[in-house]
Amino acid sequence: MKINRNYLRLEDSYLFASIAQKVGEYKAAHPEKDVIRLGIGDVTLPLGAPVVEALGRAVKEMGEAETFRGYGDYEGYAFLRKAIVGYYGEKNVRVDESEVFVSEGAKSDIANILDLFDADNKVLIPDPVYPVYVDTNVMAGREILYMNGHEGNRFLPMPDADTQGDIIYICSPNNPTGAVYSKAQLKAWVDYANERGAVILFDAAYEAFVNDPELPTSIYQIEGAATCAVEICSFSKTAGFTGVRCGYTVVPHALIREGAELNSLWLRRQSTKFNGVSYITQRGAEAVFSQAGRQWVREAVGYYMENARIIADAMEELGVWYCGGKNSPYIWLKCPKAMSSWEYFDYLLNGVNVVGTPGEGFGKNGAGFFRLTAFGDVNQVKEAVRRIKEKN
Ligand code: PLP
In what order do the strands lie in the sheet with 369-373? Predict the structure, then answer.
């Protein structure tokens, strides 16, 4: 028996363990101090009433013989896929129900979609970015190339004559940088992928946070994307589903490689390895698209974006370089006074009792940068910002 040795090539992630340890030590030494966390990537608002009611109704249905449901469709119930197609319609994007696959969240689909691709493909991943893209490809033994995000390109790397990549990850709005590609920039990626015969995996987990109507919220708003892109979406940050677990992935029929529709391959993969998302969860997700659900999402996203505005305004006032925060719940800042990410972490923790996330955790280009998130309580955000400004 031989193990998958690629697992031994994975880098240990000490980031969140180190943060927890440092915060734990500080709190033990200073139990009277009120430490504010601006580093969390999880939502804090509870589920909205429309979702809770829908979940409750579905639970009741499952408890009655006439309405009980067993295994559902691998690709998701038609009622939810229809609602998702309607949502795309509002973005002026035509998606067919058979192109939508309901999942238990974006993370697993990001990993599972790799089943469709040969191990020999070159993978192109932005640095910095959500670390799951790198680790899932290391597990599969794929060669990883990086595209560099930096201050100069505002953390939005673009293809050039030297760019290579068969599987290209794009995360927009980006975690951790909050940077969002414009339509023209995405068009350049779509053209590149179509010319090369590459596939773009477009992670739209934060699409609901895009405020600016000029910015794309789906790659399918870009001409030509249907022949080169898979889009992966999530209810996690949009509707507080991090603990409920639901998302969806769009695989267009027009996306064909080596004569095979990726849609058919994905359906085959899902029907073999996946038994669907629970009926109860899917009814909850459907309610996200109801009128009341949409209103609630607007309010919840608005609440977080107010936090983002408060943090971003403080950065402006302090003259700190940052990106994100306007169309994303993440604020990505350059550590002041040329501090390293960990020096700035210590400075904030010890000096003002605020916790954020050092940029290195998201790739080597994150060194010297720092992520603050807008998912906290507004009063705590205000207090954290007051302290940061005062200490400055
Ligand atoms: N994609 C990005 C960019 C994320 O930041 C996250 C979670 O933080 C996910 C995907 C995972 O989302 P889900 O909760 O749907 O698995």
Answer: 322-324, 330-334, 369-373, 357-358
